[in-house]
Write a structure and sequence with these properties.
The chain is of the alpha/beta class. It is built from 24 helices and 13 strands. Strand 9 and strand 10 form a beta hairpin. The termini are far apart. The model has no long low-confidence stretch (mean pLDDT 95).
C-alpha cells in the first residue's frame, strides 16, 4: 500500500462514519469485558435492530475509555453522552433506555459527565485512539491517521532523520529507567549487524502488581505499537521484531495476532512495505508470567528459548542482544509514542512536559481514590492535582497518607511532597521512581511496614535466585518485616533491615534486586514512627496488623515493649 492509497482509504472510512448519526461506543477492554460489556454491546445491537434504526445507529466495540472502575462504559459520539455501569438486557433495562433516548434527554441515572476533570485534564497522545477506534479493525486505525507516519518515514525520510526527530522529542523509555530513546536508537543504528541481523523487541511483560497500562494499550490500539516498532526497525536497520507479552494477557495477545495479520494483508508489515526495499516481520512471544522476565537481558534469554535469567551488562542489548545481534528493546508505551512524534515532529512533543521529562505519561491510578482507572497526563503535573482533581480525592473523607509509584521497584511518597511535579527527576529526588506507571494512593487505613512487607514478599518470590544478595537478602528482609508487623521485632532488627537495604541495593546483579529495597527505604525514611510504634509500643496505628494495639480502640500495647534507640 502506498501513502496515497493509505490516505484514500482513510478518507473513504471517514465518509462512511459521517453517514452514521449515532455511533455508540462500548468499551470492550479487559475490565469492562469482565463486567459483561460484550453482552451490553449485543443488547444495544439487538435493541437498535428491533427499532429498525440500523441505518442511522451503529454500535462499535472500542478500547478502554479510562474510568475502568465505572465500567461497562458506553458513549454516544454524536452528542458526547457517556454512560457508566451499563448492564446487559438480561439484567435490566439500561440498554433499552439508552436506545430509546437517543433523540431525547439522556438517561439520567446512568450519566457520567465527560466534563469531569478525570477526562478534561488528561492529555492523550498514547491513548488518543483508546475508546474511539475498534482495535480489531485496521481501517479504524488508518482512519485515525494510522500508518501515515510509517509510510512518510519510509518514503520521505532517511533513517538518520527519523532518529533525529525521536532525539529532538526528548522521549525517554517508559519501561522504568527513563533512558533517552533517541540515544538508544542511534546506538543500535551505529552497531554492525551480527550474521546480517539486528532485532527490535517490544517489552510487554508488565509484571508490576497493579500495573495495566501496557496491557490496555495493546488491547485498545495494537496497530499503534506495530507502527512504532516498524518505524524503529527502519531507523535502526532491523528486519525482524518480537513482541514479548505475558500469557496472562489473552485479550492483548488475541488482538495483537489480529493486528499483525491485518497489517501484513495490507502490506504494512512484511516484505517491501509501501513498495520500498524495507521489509519487517513481527512475531509474538509469550512469557510465562515472571516479573524478572521484564528485565531486558532476561527477556532476551527467554525469547531465545532459555530460562529467563538476567546477565550482567555490559554488553548492553543495543550492542549485543538477541542471538548476539544488536537489539533495540523498548517498552510498549515508548513504541506507542513513536508514530505521533513522526507525524507531528519532535519539537511538537518536546513542547509538552518539563525540561527533562518530555511528553505525557500513562498511569494506572489505583487504591484509595474516587476515580480509579487509566490516565494520561503531561509530565510535570503536580501529584496533588492528579489525586484530587483527576482522581476525585480520597473517599470517606479520609486523609491522604502516601502515594506509591513504580511498583516493587518504587517507593512511597508522603503528604509533604504532594505538590511535587510528577516527572523522572522529582520522583527520583524523593527516593521513588516513575517505573512503568503504577500509582497507588493510600490513606490512613494503610500500614506502611505492612505495605513494605507486601512488596518485599513480591520481590523475594519473584527473585530468579541467580545472585546471593537478592536470593537471600530479600528473604531475610521479608522475615524482618514479618517480625515487625507481628510485633516481635527488636531495635536490632530495624538496624539490620536498614543495613540490608544498602547491601541488597549495591550488590545485586540486576534491577530487581537493586531496586527491591526502595519501598522499605522510603517507608523507613518517611514513616519511621510507624516502625517504632510496631517495635516499641506493639501498636499498629492503621489497625492493619493483627494482634497489635490500635489507638483509640484497644490502646494498650500488647507484649513487652522493646527498647528503642532509633
Ligand atoms: C525486574 C525488572 C522488570 C522489568 N519489567 C519491565 C516490563 O515489564 N516492561 C518494560 O518495558 N520494562 C521492564 N523493565 C525494564 C527493561 O529492563 C528495559 O529497561 C525496558 O524494557 C527498556 O525499554 P524503554 O527504554 O522503552 O523503557 C524491567 C526491569 C527490571 C529490572
Ligand atoms: S538481582 Fe535477583 S532477580 Fe536479579 S539476577 Fe540477582 S537473584 Fe536474579
Ligand atoms: S476497561 Fe473499560 S473503561 Fe477501562
Amino acid at each position: 500500500m502506498t501513502l496515497d492509497e493509505l490516505r484514500e482509504l482513510a478518507e473513504t472510512e471517514r465518509e462512511k462514519q459521517t453517514q452514521v448519526k449515532h455511533e455508540i461506543h462500548v468499551c470492550t477492554a479487559a475490565a469492562c469485558l469482565s463486567q459483561r460489556s460484550d453482552q451490553v454491546k449485543a443488547s444495544l445491537e439487538a435493541e437498535i435492530k428491533a427499532h429498525g434504526k440500523e441505518d442511522c445507529c451503529k454500535v462499535k466495540g472500542v478500547g478502554c475509555m479510562g474510568l475502568c472502575a465505572a465500567g461497562p462504559l458506553v458513549s454516544d459520539e454524536s452528542n458526547g453522552r457517556l454512560y457508566q455501569n451499563v448492564r446487559p438486557a438480561d439484567e435490566n433495562t439500561d440498554t433499552k433506555e439508552i436506545v430509546a433516548s437517543l433523540e431525547s434527554e439522556p438517561v439520567e441515572r446512568l450519566s457520567l459527565s465527560p466534563e469531569l476533570p478525570f477526562f478534561k485534564e488528561q492529555k492523550k497522545i498514547v491513548l488518543e485512539n483508546s475508546g474511539k477506534i475498534d482495535p480489531e479493525r485496521i481501517e479504524d486505525y488508518i482512519c485515525a491517521g494510522g500508518y501515515e507516519a510509517l509510510l512518510t518515514a519510509l518514503t520521505e525520510m532517511r533513517p538518520l532523520e527519523v532518529i533525529e526527530q525521536i532525539t529532538k522529542s526528548g522521549l525517554r523509555g517508559r519501561g522504568g529507567a527513563g533512558y533517552p530513546t533517541g540515544l538508544k536508537w542511534s546506538t543500535v543504528a551505529k552497531a554492525s549487524p551480527h550474521n546480517g541481523a539486528k532485532y527490535v523487541i517490544c517489552n510487554g511483560d508488565e509484571g508490576d502488581p497493579g500495573a495495566f497500562m501496557d496491557r490496555s494499550v495493546l488491547e485498545s490500539d495494537p496497530q499503534r505499537v506495530l507502527e512504532g516498532m516498524a518505524i524503529a526497525a527502519y531507523a535502526v536497520g532491523a528486519n525482524r521484531g518480537f513482541i514479548y507479552v505475558r500469557a496472562e494477557y489473552p485479550l492483548a495477545i488475541k488482538r495483537l495476532k489480529i493486528a499483525i495479520k491485518q497489517a501484513e494483508t495490507m502490506g504494512l508489515l512484511g516484505a517491501n512495505i509501501a513498495d520500498t526495499t524495507f521489509s519487517f516481520k513481527i512475531e509474538l512471544r509469550l512469557g510465562a508470567g515472571a516479573f524478572v522476565c521484564g528485565e531486558e537481558t532476561a527477556l532476551i534469554a527467554s525469547v531465545e528459548g532459555k530460562r529467563g535469567n538476567p546477565r550482567p551488562r555490559p554488553p548492553y542489548p543495543a550492542q549485543e542482544g538477541l542471538w548476539n545481534a544488536p537489539t533495540l528493546i523498548n517498552n510498549v508505551e515508548t513504541f506507542a509514542n513513536v508514530a505521533p512524534i513522526i507525524r507531528n515532529g519532535g519539537a511538537w512533543y518536546a513542547a509538552i512536559g518539563t525540561e527533562k521529562s518530555k511528553g505525557t505519561k500513562v498511569f494506572a491510578l489505583a487504591g484509595r481514590v474516587a476515580n480509579t482507572g487509566l490516565i494520561e497526563i503531561p509530565m510535570g503535573m503536580p501529584l496533588r492535582h492528579v489525586i484530587y482533581q483527576l482522581g476525585g480525592g480520597i473517599p470517606d473523607n479520609r486523609r491522604f497518607k502516601a502515594a506509591q509509584t513504580g511498583g516493587p521497584s518504587g517507593g512511597c511518597i508522603p503528604e509533604e511532597y504532594l505538590d511535587m511535579p510528577v516527572d523522572y527527576e522529582s520522583l527520583a529526588s524523593v527516593g521513588s521512581i516513575m517505573g512503568s506507571g503504577g500509582l497507588i494512593v493510600m490513606d490512613e487505613t494503610s500500614c506502611m511496614p505492612d505495605v513494605a512487607k507486601y512488596f518485599m514478599d513480591f520481590c523475594c518470590t519473584e527473585s530468579c535466585g541467580k545472585c546471593i544478595p537478592c536470593r537471600v537478602g530479600t528473604v531475610h528482609m521479608h522475615n524482618l518485616l514479618s517480625r515487625i508487623t507481628a510485633g516481635e521485632a527488636t531495635p536490632e532488627d530495624l538496624a539490620l533491615l536498614e543495613r540490608l537495604c544498602d547491601v541488597v541495593r549495591n550488590t545485586s546483579l540486576c534491577g530487581l534486586g537493586q531496586s527491591a529495597p526502595n519501598p522499605v527505604a522510603t517507608t523507613l525514611k518517611y514513616f519511621r514512627k510507624e516502625y517504632i510504634d510496631h517495635i516499641h509500643h506493639k501498636r499498629c496505628t492503621a489497625g492493619v496488623c493483627e494482634g497489635l494495639a490500635r489507638p483509640g480502640k484497644d490502646d494498650k500495647p500488647k507484649g513487652k515493649p522493646a527498647e528503642v534507640t532509633a
